[in-house]
Design brief:
By secondary structure, the chain is mostly helical. The protein contains 11 helices and no strands. Helix 7 packs antiparallel against helix 8. The longest helix is centred in the N-terminal third of the chain and has 28 residues. It is elongated and about 105 Å long. The N and C termini lie far apart (about 165 Å).
């Protein structure tokens, strides 16, 4: 009887012991299966984002951005964070990066010498930021958002720079009205909030009126030279051309000083035009006499 009681006690103890071990293994040693998928990594990424300094120089700031962005993409691709968590992290990264990027751009715009490569790099970076997308394909830098406006603001400066440079270094004369508009635009670019710091560009813009005046005068000389080719025109065609050319010369004389701030004498142009006209009249008179 005593043996039976001892055996029963041993069996109960053994069952309790095995159950205790099983419970410990289940609750203490097994991984926490109910832990949210990204909870281990989201705080770590957020700390990396918080460490980004908006006052960092361009190279450091870009390196930090690409490092964190690559890490987020790696976690998302390997399902270490959910799509929603990855989207939120990308948004937080963009909001931290863009102000620093814009700050560095504005420092570049305050330089007295600009390079085309720097402006192109800014444009490429803006385009790159606008191509970063969420899991649903929408832009991280949403249209209408504050950071989108900041990116647009620096991109617009680079566009104004390209327009101003094209205007300053290609002073082609079309007509007086076109010249007035070009000079007005040049003055606007010279007083732009950031273009005004670019010394060489502003100097070229300041010289634009004189360049246009020179191009205008050269155009008149070329027009006058056309009057020497009377043999290839009828008398009626020649008379029409002469009236046009003389009118162009007089328009320059009346308007150049007001439009360009300077002008030249047109006496030589008028004298040459009259000399060609006299020769043309003599030629047409002889031609008419020979035709009888």
């Amino acid at each position: 009887m005593k043996r039976l009681i001892k055996t029963s006690i041993l069996i109960v103890v053994a069952v309790v012991a095995v159950g205790s071990v099983a419970y410990y293994a289940k609750t203490r040693l097994d991984p926490p299966v109910d832990l949210p998928m990204g909870s281990q990594f989201v705080p770590a990424v957020e700390r990396e984002i918080d460490m980004i300094s908006t006052s960092s120089n361009e190279i450091t700031l870009n390196r930090q951005f690409f490092k964190v962005h690559h890490f987020i993409c790696f976690l998302a691709d390997n399902q270490r964070v959910s799509p929603e968590e990855a989207d939120a992290l990308k948004e937080k990264l963009a909001k931290k990066y863009v102000p620093g990027f814009v700050h560095n751009c504005l420092l570049t715009f305050r330089h007295t010498t600009w390079s085309a490569s720097d402006m192109k790099a800014i444009q490429n970076r803006v385009a790159m930021m606008k191509k970063v997308v969420k899991s649903d394909g929408s832009r991280v830098v949403a249209r209408g958002s504050s950071i989108n406006s900041q990116l647009d603001s620096v991109f617009n400066v680079t566009q104004r720079y390209e327009e101003a440079k094209q205007l300053a270094y290609n002073p082609r004369f079309v007509n007086l009205d076109n010249a007035r508009k070009k000079i007005s635009r040049a003055n606007s670019y010279r007083h732009h909030d950031y273009l005004k710091y670019n010394i060489s560009l502003c100097d070229s813009l300041m010289r634009l009126p004189a360049k246009l005046e020179n191009a205008h005068y050269d155009r008149l000389k070329a027009r006058v030279d056309l009057l020497q080719y009377y043999r290839s025109r009828s008398e009626e065609e020649y008379d029409s051309l002469y009236i046009q050319v003389f009118g162009d010369i007089q328009l320059y004389a009346d308007s150049a000083s007001f439009v360009y701030g300077t002008s030249r004498s047109v006496s030589d142009l008028k004298s040459d035009a009259r000399d060609y006209a006299v020769k043309a009249k003599a030629y047409y008179k002889v031609s008419d006499w020979l035709s009888f």
